[in-house]
Amino acid sequence: MERLKILVTGGAGYIGSHTVRLLLSQGHDVTVVDNLSKGHRHNVPPERLYELDVRETAALAELMRRKQTDAVVHFAAFIAVGESMREPERYFANNVGGSLSLLTAMVETGVKRIVFSSTAAVYGNPYTSPILEDFPIHAVNPYGESKVMTETMLHWFDAIHQVRSVALRYFNASGADPAGDLGEEHEPETHLIPLVFRAISSGQPVTVFGNDYPTPDGTCIRDYIHVNDLAQAHILAVEHLMRGGESDRFNVGTGTGHSVLEVIRAVEEVTGRKVPYTIGERREGDPPSLVAASDKLKNQLGWNPQYPGLGAIVEHAWRFSEKHQFA
Ligand code: UFG
Q1: Which stretches of the chain score pLDDT less than 70?
Q2: Per DSSP, what are the bridge partners of residue 129?
């Protein structure tokens, strides 16, 4: 595909920065917008970064006009489910308000294509597995609801303003760039794999949130997807839209689930270190199993994940973590 001018919001964050790197490696012209409230300056080439909040509509529109943006990839959002249950106002203001501001700036400047960072949390507590894209939407926390609301806005901006969109519903983004210099740096960290690494380095056990779920070993099952495979999905989605493709939504997962204990075992295998862990209470709101049906993305956009197992995910995440914790 020809060289595209892509504006990436939240491009200094975890998934955003991996996507920016891949877009740049494929020769695209990338502009990153990030207010650095969660993202990291060191994740992005400095000349690409514009320190801006997506809620600053006029500044965003000015930047899009100046950069002659072809398409937007929209990551900027808060992501912590637990926090969203305590402070829903922040999630609606930042995630929904931010998306509305961005869409408004797009309409103002005639930018008609957007790839949106959505989540499996839009399905709530699904009773089937694997989950197809037409499974009923029913968020069970404000974080998931903020993504549902943005998907709903996308629908109306398509119907009324012809803004074409692809919503990518991520399952469990994990892993790191194999180069070892880009990875997951959330603060506070809530995700399983980095917390398991911290347990190894600190000797303080990680808590397994419940072992009485209706799953083979009693611990929750998730679909862990390598962040670079996730990044690839964004590029395919942009290309789909640039070809004149219709608005759509896709799961991004591998179709295979792994339990918490399987993740711990995979970490022990890759690192050769013992993981100290204890079994604790269930974490509120955790569905027993979340596994994607991923055929739609494969069949319709030609997505072909390079790292479909836990091995590479854990190995690459460990490489990054070693550089940052133990260097
Ligand atoms: N877990 C533990 N102990 C921990 C942390 C996690 O046992 O200390 C377990 C959880 O209970 C869950 C699994 O490990 O079963 C994965 O938990 P994460 O917090 O890493 O990820 P989640 O599946 O809860 O959430 C992820 C994203 C959310 C998104 C959700 C949608 O982080 O943003 O997937 O599927 F909403």
Answers
A1: 325-327
A2: none
